[in-house]
Amino acid sequence: MTTSLMIANRQTWFGAGSINQLIPLLEADPQPTLLFSCRSFLGGAVHAGLAETLALLLVGTETVGHEASPRDIDQWVARWRGKVRRVVAIGGGSVLDAAKAFAALVEHPLPTLRYMEKVGDSRVSGATLPVIAIPTTAGTGSEVTQNAVVTDTRVNMVKASLRHNNFVPQVAILDPQLLAGAPDRVLAYCAIDAFTHLFEAYLSKTASALSREMSLTGIRLFLEAWPALNRDDDAREAIMQASYLGGLTLSMAGLGVIHGIAGEVGALRSYHHGQVCGRLLLPFLALLAESEQPRQRALMAGLAARLFPDRRDNPARYLLEFITRHAIAPFWRDDLPLSRRELAVSLEKSNSKNSLLEYPPAQRRKMIEQAFRIE
Length: 375
Description:
Elements lengths: L10 E4 L7 H7 L4 E5 L1 H4 L2 H11 L4 E4 L6 H11 L5 E6 L1 H13 L25 E5 L11 E6 L5 E6 L7 E4 L9 H19 L6 H17 L7 H21 L3 H10 L6 H17 L4 H14 L7 H12 L10 E2 L1 H10 L11 H11 L1 E2 L1
Parallel strand pairs: 1-8, 2-3, 2-4, 4-5, 5-8, 9-10
Antiparallel strand pairs: 6-7
Helix pairs in contact: 4-5, 6-7, 6-8, 6-10, 7-8, 9-10, 10-12, 10-14
């Protein structure tokens, strides 16, 4: 039996209104605290209700408008080194990753690129400032993962992680009310990212009985939430739980070919990561529907028996139809071009990661061509 290690937050608050735990947490342990956030939260009603008290507990705020680049992180480190002892992150996955990367690298001497997977030449030590992570989207699960994703689409053309068990935020606050009012397309992009984490972790060759059970729970929550993301409090609560479980299971079991391709596309184009994963998920499900690989077939049969026992004939095809039929935003219809050079680069650099099968270049190419418009 495969064993796995689960690393999680020291404290996790969950439920409507749980963001109100933030002020007492900061007041209980006064420290120079830097806030990382986004314009949508800082301009919203929830922040307005906290702003007066929160401002007294902060030394400053950094606004994150996109996936952080190595240059962004180096600039933040130069500005705040020695002035901060704790970090609060309130926002989507890009905000949380930026805050986690900053919290770690402000405790390291070298520039960001030196520590990044794929391109770096130095190992992170694990030193980091404590992070309180409060997601305002439900997709990446960054509030409970060991990695901080850094993206440079302009200079080095790389999307990679800083990774250490110590980089899991000490505290996560999961408040489903923070999802209210998000645009339909953002809700859909993020939710499909959460599903892809759960699904790839379920099918991973390094998954354990524990991680697969957690993946199944998360997938069930996704299926319940997906059709009603934009209109139902129960759906928002379910998808936030699914996203959190996706973060846990991807950390335990790893991801597969979808993320093996998506990371390389993300290094070339500033497309929403969840949308990229969703676009690749659809041809992957079609490929999976035709798979004769015994272990894949057994796992899919087990998934269907647990989650939709009346539709066992072709579980992958059922998921494909369910996702497209019930989507609140048709994420697969937007025009997302890739040049032929970008196709070649993505194909060359991508891999199957922890998939049960090794997907050869021809199959990866087919997935890319079906997911994007090649110019």
